[in-house]
Specification:
This protein is mostly helical. It has a domain of 128 residues. 69% of the residues lie in helices and 0% in strands. The longest helix has 28 residues. The two termini are 66 Å apart.
Length: 706
């Protein structure tokens, strides 16, 4: 087979020669046939994609190749992957030739050659490939391609889609075999969106699709086809009549399975219920806008008839099943946004709230410290549940709070006897209360807000961090940070939270991940509650001393962790209950210790000739300056004056300026810039005469805080 391709350049010819030699080598390989076949098909795909659409000189050769494949289908058994690849190539030819160059493509290649199951399967696979090539809206296309695709669809409606749809009736018959029925249903799912609805919704086709839905072998494919039919765009009146007829039919044919042992069938039930309900809700709003109130009530009545199968699916232990109807649940509750809420609706919300809160608990074998696919799927599921709880909380906060209050009481009284997943659930729900009720609880005026605030305070007053489990403790400290404004107004739990931060439940915990998180949260905790912690500042400072070194216990913390500790210590000194003399003493001792480390490092640098060791010293110096910058961060010019610390800060920067005479200035420059930005020294200790200060100021504008 020879195609009229353009002459090859020298480079292209060399590559072609290499390819030819490789293919020849595959011929002698017993296992090389498959790879050889795919290489040749890939070459053909490139030709059909790039050359053939603009050059029909090889059309006869292409037709011969296609006819030859179709003739051999019934006598040879081909693997699925090969059939799918060939279907893709046939679709490329169709897109290039139809309708202009080959208007009878479908009839000549397929409809006259459906002589066996293999040819039928290949025909259906080609239709699916054609959908991907021409219709699939998830693929970004140029305007030229969109215009081409629109032309192809218009021509198919005119020339061949009626005949194609006519074959589906035969293919959906039980005698056709499972694979053919599945493929045919997939084709219907793809095509129903843009063809005449009556080609599918008719007395011949629908009963066959329903029969497929009743069969376990084809239920999934039939469900997707039915959902696609229901979702097809049409006028509101037509959509309502269609969906209502389907609802009656599905109920008569018992398609809404309640067989809890068959997860797949329940998933299909959930998909059908969700699709019908969403369409009815769309009709509800359309009829409401048109002021057709009789139709509005009919829609509402039809939706209400789906509540029981919806609750059945939602309450399933299988996460995938309950996910199928979450959109229905949210939108159904939204129907009552501007309506009077009746007792029946509140009772329904109570049921949904109970199920939702129960589903928040992770499975028994769940690994909270893993980031695998299973864990990510569950966390995504939780986001959907949270959204649902927020919707419920807007209508019936009392129902959500009543359940939470019962669970939090059990938690506070006896968390030691609870499963880890139950503890995590209580803490997680506590952490999202502000989102569920859209309130930060700093200023509570409603009964619901006050009750929610009390729940948070109860949890934060518990000693659950004694469990020692890292992800539980991390979640607890996150909650204390999330509700920091609440703790400002009601600081009773602060002391117990502070103790948890300082001992082996927080900063001294064996988990490095938890220690890192605690270092950041502790710094934030201290800065937020600096006044409330003032009386305990000396005790806290003594507890943190061993975190300030560069070895031993401080090895628990990384450089970034230690920066947070230095900043927290500085804030405690400034805002603690110490007198100004003590504050000056503490700050001076702290900064002098850093200066000593810096000068020792400089001495080591002068004596060191080893490149690798010098790099380590550079990093050490960077760390020291970084710690100094964090100590300076909480200071304003007023605080420097009150604490009489201007002299030590001036000396600090004077010593650090020597770095600008070294080759390592690029390493330390941004950090020293940051230090200069943080420190506002009084005029009598001005640093304006420092060498390179103008450069520092200019450079500072281009750096954010490290």
């Amino acid at each position: 087979m020879a195609f009229g391709v353009k002459p090859l350049s020298t480079t292209e010819f060399a590559h072609s020669a290499e390819l030819y030699e490789y293919i020849e080598s595959l011929k002698s390989d017993p296992n090389g046939n498959v790879e050889e076949h795919f290489i040749l098909l890939h070459v053909l795909e490139i030709y059909l994609s790039n050359i053939y659409p603009n050059d029909a000189s090889d059309q006869d050769v292409i037709k011969l190749w296609m006819m030859n494949w179709m003739d051999k289908l019934c006598s040879l058994e081909n693997p699925y992957y090969l059939c799918n690849k060939m279907a893709q190539l046939f679709a490329l030819v169709f897109a290039a030739d139809f309708p202009t160059r080959w208007p009878d493509f479908i009839h000549e290649i397929f409809l006259q050659k459906l002589n066996c199951a293999a040819s039928v399967e290949f025909f259906l696979r080609t239709l699916i490939a054609l959908d991907a090539e021409v219709v699939d809206q998830d693929i970004n296309r140029t305007k030229l391609m969109l215009d081409r695709n629109a032309q192809i669809k218009d021509a198919m409606r005119e020339y061949c889609i009626n005949d194609i749809a006519g074959t589906w009736i035969n293919f959906l018959n039980v005698s056709s075999g499972v694979k053919i029925r599945e493929l045919c249903l997939e084709v219907i799912t793809c095509y129903v969106d843009w063809i005449d609805i009556h080609l599918v919704v008719n007395d011949a086709t629908i009963p066959l699709i329903i029969a497929c839905a009743q069969s376990e072998e084809t239920s999934e494919a039939a469900t997707h086809a039915l959902c696609a039919i229901i979702e097809k765009g049409m006028s509101t009146e037509e959509k309502f009549k269609l969906v209502k007829a389907f609802l009656i039919l599905f109920q008569e044919k018992k398609l809404f399975s309640t067989n809890a042992d068959n997860v797949d069938l329940i998933i299909h039930t959930g998909l059908l219920v969700n699709t019908i309900a969403l369409s009815l809700i769309d009709c509800y709003y359309d009829f409401l806008n048109l002021q057709q109130f009789d139709r509005v009530q009919e829609c509402l009545h039809a939706v209400n008839s789906l509540l029981q199968p919806m609750l059945f699916c939602f309450s399933s232990e299988n996460m995938e099943v309950s996910q199928t109807i979450l959109d229905f649940l949210r939108r159904y509750i939204g129907l009552f946004k501007n309506n009077v809420v009746n007792p029946e609706f509140i009772s329904f919300l109570r049921q949904v709230a109970i199920i939702t809160l129960n589903k928040f608990e992770a499975p028994d074998n769940f690994n909270f410290e893993n980031d695998g696919e299973e864990e990510l799927d569950f966390f995504e599921y939780r986001k959907q549940l949270k959204s649902l709880l927020t919707t419920i909380g807007a209508f019936a906060p009392d129902e959500v709070l009543r359940i939470l209050e019962e669970n939090v009481k059990i938690f506070c009284d006896n968390w030691q006897q609870m499963k880890i997943s139950q503890i995590e659930t209580i803490l997680r729900l506590t952490s999202i209360l502000s989102e569920i009720f859209c309130n930060n609880f700093a200023n509570c005026v409603t009964d619901a807000a006050i009750r929610a605030k009390n729940l948070i305070l109860q949890v934060l007053s518990s000693n659950v961090t004694c469990c020692g489990i890292s992800f539980i403790n991390e979640l607890f400290f996150d909650i204390s940070s999330r509700y920091e404004k609440l703790l400002i107004s009601d600081p009773k739990p602060l002391n117990s939270i502070l103790e948890a931060f300082l001992d082996n439940r927080g900063l001294r915990h064996p988990s490095s991940r938890l220690r890192t998180r605690c270092a950041y949260l502790f710094c934030r905790f201290v800065k937020t509650h600096k006044k409330a912690l003032g009386d305990r500042s000396q005790i806290v400072l003594s507890s943190l001393t061993d975190f300030l070194g560069f070895s031993s216990t401080s090895g628990f913390l990384t450089y970034d962790d230690q920066k947070c500790i230095y900043e927290a210590i500085s804030a405690l000194i400034i805002h603690g209950s110490l007198n100004n003399g003590m504050k000056k003493q503490y700050i001076t001792e702290l900064l002098n210790s850093l200066l000593k480390k810096f000068l020792d490092g400089m001495d080591r640098l002068e004596k060191c000739e080893n490149t690798e060791e010098r790099q380590l010293i550079y990093q050490f110096l960077c760390n020291v300056v970084g710690y100094s910058a964090r100590v300076a961060k909480p200071f304003s010019s007023e605080y420097i004056k009150n604490c009489d610390c201007a002299e030590i800060f001036s000396r600090l920067i004077s010593v650090y300026q020597c770095v600008f005479t070294l080759s390592i200035d690029k390493v330390l420059f941004p950090i020293i810039v940051n230090l200069c930005k943080n420190v506002q020294i009084s005029p009598e200790h001005s640093i304006t005469d420092l060498e390179y200060l103008d450069d520092v100021v200019l450079f500072a504008d281009s750096y954010n805080e490290l």
